[in-house]
Amino acid sequence: MANKEMEVVKGVNLERYMGRWYEIASFPSRFQPKNGMNTRATYTLREDGTVNVLNETWNDGKRGYIEGSAYKADPNSDEAKLKVKFYVPPFLPIIPVVGDYWVLYLDDDYHHALIGQPTRKYLWILCREPHLDDEIYNQLVQRARDQGYDVSKLQKTPQSDSPPEGDEGPKDTKGIWWFKSILGK
């Protein structure tokens, strides 16, 4: 099943996709803190058609974040295959790291989404709200399974009932959480 070509959403309206998305579940990643909570991404469309990406997570009461950009992998395709680019280390942007961001499912209301990439090493379930109905969650997990993902690796992301806004609370230095996560902390 893993060799099957993944089905990717076509015709995504990027303007509608912009805004805040909460991470409901994901495959663990060495680029995120192990105890992160209230993890979310905020997307903002730039004048040049690229997307500003702000990924945030809270760990031990501190906000960690990294900013990057996203752009269509093939400007002539209507498939929702994007490239995301971050610089590492984030606090001293030297080396660009580019990854795939494929929209595998998006509901008609742009309320919840399934995001993956061709190696199937990364998977995210996103929602416009910090909590997602169990029935919809299970449907998204099944969609991921149907796309060849080993969903046993999927872990729910803790989200509070009232997630922090902006950069309230103690602020971690930009990208320090990324560095700590590489060291396994």
Automatic annotation (TrEMBL):
* Lipocalin/cytosolic fatty-acid binding domain boundaries: 12-159
PROSITE patterns, A to Z:
LIPOCALIN (PS00213)
Q: Which InterPro entries match?
A: Calycin (IPR012674), Lipocalin_ApoD (IPR022271), Lipocalin_bac (IPR002446), Lipocalin_Blc-like_dom (IPR047202), Lipocalin_CS (IPR022272), Lipocln_cytosolic_FA-bd_dom (IPR000566)
- Would you name any one GO CC term? cytoplasm
| Superkingdom of origin organism | Eukaryota
User: A single GO BP annotation from the record?
Assistant: lipid metabolic process
The segments labelled Disordered in the record are 149-176
Membership in a protein family: Belongs to the calycin superfamily. Lipocalin family.
Name of the protein in its database record: Lipocalin/cytosolic fatty-acid binding domain-containing protein
